[in-house]
Amino acid sequence: MSLSVGILGATGYTGAELLRILYLHPQARIVYCSSRQYNGKALADVLTFFRGSLDIPLEEFDEETVRNRCDIVFSCLPHGASMEFVAGIAPFVKVVDLSADFRLRDVSVYRAWYQEHSCPELLGKAVYGLCEIYRDLIRHAGLVANPGCYPTSVLLPLVPLLREGLIDKDGIVVDSKSGVSGAGRGLSLRSHICEVGESFSAYKVGRSHRHIPEIEQELAMAAGAPVTIEFTPHLVPMSRGMLSTIYVGTTADEAELKGCLERFYLGSPFVSVVDEPPSTKDVRGTNRCLIFVAKHPSRPRATIVSVIDNLTKGASGQAVQCMNLMFGLEETLGLDSLPLYP
Amino acid sequence: MSLSVGILGATGYTGAELLRILYLHPQARIVYCSSRQYNGKALADVLTFFRGSLDIPLEEFDEETVRNRCDIVFSCLPHGASMEFVAGIAPFVKVVDLSADFRLRDVSVYRAWYQEHSCPELLGKAVYGLCEIYRDLIRHAGLVANPGCYPTSVLLPLVPLLREGLIDKDGIVVDSKSGVSGAGRGLSLRSHICEVGESFSAYKVGRSHRHIPEIEQELAMAAGAPVTIEFTPHLVPMSRGMLSTIYVGTTADEAELKGCLERFYLGSPFVSVVDEPPSTKDVRGTNRCLIFVAKHPSRPRATIVSVIDNLTKGASGQAVQCMNLMFGLEETLGLDSLPLYP
Amino acid sequence: MSLSVGILGATGYTGAELLRILYLHPQARIVYCSSRQYNGKALADVLTFFRGSLDIPLEEFDEETVRNRCDIVFSCLPHGASMEFVAGIAPFVKVVDLSADFRLRDVSVYRAWYQEHSCPELLGKAVYGLCEIYRDLIRHAGLVANPGCYPTSVLLPLVPLLREGLIDKDGIVVDSKSGVSGAGRGLSLRSHICEVGESFSAYKVGRSHRHIPEIEQELAMAAGAPVTIEFTPHLVPMSRGMLSTIYVGTTADEAELKGCLERFYLGSPFVSVVDEPPSTKDVRGTNRCLIFVAKHPSRPRATIVSVIDNLTKGASGQAVQCMNLMFGLEETLGLDSLPLYP
Amino acid sequence: MSLSVGILGATGYTGAELLRILYLHPQARIVYCSSRQYNGKALADVLTFFRGSLDIPLEEFDEETVRNRCDIVFSCLPHGASMEFVAGIAPFVKVVDLSADFRLRDVSVYRAWYQEHSCPELLGKAVYGLCEIYRDLIRHAGLVANPGCYPTSVLLPLVPLLREGLIDKDGIVVDSKSGVSGAGRGLSLRSHICEVGESFSAYKVGRSHRHIPEIEQELAMAAGAPVTIEFTPHLVPMSRGMLSTIYVGTTADEAELKGCLERFYLGSPFVSVVDEPPSTKDVRGTNRCLIFVAKHPSRPRATIVSVIDNLTKGASGQAVQCMNLMFGLEETLGLDSLPLYP
Asked: Do D236 and C194 touch (CB under 8 A)?
């Protein structure tokens, strides 16, 4: 089998990461790339490391072309724009949407955090693409809503524990830290090396980050009841990497918590429970997630630390993992890279 | 007035920061520097930016010399070593000890977290050098225990709120992030640029960091009852800077919380309440602390973010602030620098 | 004395560095700041670390106001724009222009590298503000053309050696490396932390950088004959700092070369000859220049390394040094800071 | 075919990079790893990203074991130590030595720059492992001396031009910049993030770096006459990457210089001539070398810029490329990775 793959918005960071993975994927062939900003140029003129290896133009989006040429399309367009394009192709090609447009099951929640939804009828058909949690649904999905990076880093450790009732659904505090690539390739003082280099900052403090409803939706699914979290994102002076430190109430001991996670992820090669607090460098450029658990010695509380690469497991790597599942391929195909160390 | 100042352990990062500040301090004269590692060398051969400006030798520690030559001594020695030296000079010269040796009021707590204390009789005489909280005591102190960096970043925002009963003493979660200089100039894979650069990590997860008893001691003083916190320190790939994100229970609203802090710090020029989440770069190289407060919109919880420079307000700048108070000088003397931007 | 100081273009990096230095300068009072981009805002809303300390508006440029209010004006405007504004105020107030508009003595050279010059009559009145070389002229100047950062790092080591005929005027190779702040606060992929972080690059390879005519003009003045150099600028993944590695022909030995520089800079406290190859961190945030010289053991060639902070001695620090000279103040006033270490 | 591969000194940075490449190499099986420092531990306990994937012990070096178990051995030991071990196994197994011990053809040059050579008889059998230059010799070699990182970045652009007589053998200036990983995983203030972060420095200025004789030896081979260069290495505040800026005399024009390189590297997929000055990020984590050429507009001089990843094409990637050649495999096997971007 060789899948014909299209990428909408190929020149941003999630697009570039998809290209990096798919170019070496043994069953994928990149046949279509669109870009609004660089439409008409050659891909290799924008992402110059493809010079001499990937000779493909950046085309304007065209529904007809996409339908005829692609087996699967990844949309790396911004939310709002993405659903417009996806609506036109979803009935005909398989789609993994990396925007937020199909992640929220409740259209009123989408409206409250983003805008009016232009194709609510598709919401019910979309599967949330967190592979380790929704593996079987993804296998049969036509439209996958690829999870956000923060949600991925939070849900992988918490969903199994909530499902088994080992942690409280109340009192969850999530303190997350992300490399700057999470903010994309667009220009802003917040990505200027002289402004954010050698500096660490919090942003959107106090329940204003749009990943909150997505996290709470999935935690609620796992807990079987509404969940409200405290969540603060931070910016780390580096390009890639995400670490979430999560504080939860629990009467279970450390061994029970770790045992639950180990059992849950037994058949999931990308997720591991580790014995030392991890670094983001341990997973840089990989599709891995490492989870560390420590029980408070005197209180019914535990601290959980998870790390992912925000562009790989937090975005494009997970999207390829979804593709593998959607086409019956080995889940890890094309995703077996080791971290770039040092 | 011109104070004759001595520094024990002058060539580590807190020693170097003291030298940087005191060299330009209008009322201080550096007359004595000791170093165990570089004993016998010229200071300017170790900290080369002093070449041509500060011509002083690195001497071996000698009690007699210190007593005769210095009005005040800063000890930057490691804990354990520091109390040995301080015991011999404290009765004769004023001392600001930057180690942990005199921070814990209860000798059994010191023993549990560090080791046997060699001069417990001095513990009762030491004043905790958090200037904005203990200003009057410091003015009359002979021995000041300079606070740790993490405690400074946590206590400045929390002590006023606990004293006024505006936040709960239970359920406090402290998630702190520090630049690597906090780990000192000593060599370790944990400070190798290829290991920690472009990476973010948690360490001592789960109540094992030695700053915890110091934080809890002072929070208990403010609350009038024991306080137990959840605390996780993290390492940021940068040299200087510290940010603490603190989650607390409260029924007060944002204006009350901010108002309390603003009133408390009215006469304290180094501490400000700000309207945007701060960056560590806002305070780099300064003695400032910025505090941001955000109330959770639906729960009785608030998120507080504070930033300091771990080497300045978190160590040497605060030590000089203590010196200013101990000698009746203007509190801000020699500490009015602006952040190095960009 | 207290000088009333104005800054045109106060919110870029050279403007911010001027403000940082002048705010603590004992004889300067900042009375006027203009900004095209942030006109109407308070300065402290753009450069937030001035909150609570420098309460001044960002005004639109107005000749009348500047003439009435200021003793001296620093122009941090881009070339082209700068000469327009300077022409209107130069006859009435002292001006230090940090743009390139008055650095080239020959108007046809300016035209060839930049554009048509709008006030060539002022060119002859401008003094090139390299203090250690043109100290006496600067003392009596009304209009100073502040040198570029690359030229400063190249001219300080080479001018004395060329004047004494110790090095050849032919065969000079200059390989320079700059922190990203040299490119300014404007937004570009070339300052995006994900693009330039963890990366090193050359740019404008092959005689296209606009600092070349400025360097060659001053080298020719020193040599008494035309000089043509090879020059390559590079971008270092850091904010501040500049290092130039210069390869020259010479029959002199190391001692003669160093001796010449040491004699020349005897009364110049900011310039030092050092015995170990320097780092940019040695001068970060200071007005210093360090020079290292090594003779080739078998060929009549020598390698010279110089370091400066591109924003301080390479721009705003030098501009303040000029101001001190222009008003008969101590040359080092307000410029005695130590590097921020570590 | 499946090659059984051993690595001596597996836990340093070149060892780790070999493991990263070989682990995914379709024809290699890692069967033996030695480490003096971590002898007895599991590899995955030192390089933790191998947990769960590469379960192999770190053994003490044993000649007998190596001979029996390995088809090829990579030595990542330091010079001096390496030749001792290699002497015992070279007659029996193929060896790629990443140290400097077999790079210099003249034993007296080795003695002058390093120490007495313990097995000079092997020197004549060693092939210099610069694949694009010595491809055919490497195919039949039993012992390959893997080139140094600086030499690789200099020789790839210069050897073809010297061979064709397009550039002068005199007057070559090489200004090289390296990421800190080039200095290895050992601990030193020169790799402490607080010392070298946010700083740029020159080191070993003035003909003292040990890569000089290696570069001059190979340039002389290409020129057919002795060559003496000026060479200065620099340290960039990043982990990986190397850029060399090379200044040469030439009467050829830009097109001739580029044409010569393009012809020479026609069958060499890792080396490309590019039209824009390259960044080290363009090749990070890859075995590529990019070369840019610019002619001086008025002088018979040209500037050449080359970039490699010092740990890949500059060390372990090139070593694997040698292995591929030595065993008749496709030269690019296991080396087709794209740069980690961003």
From this structure: no
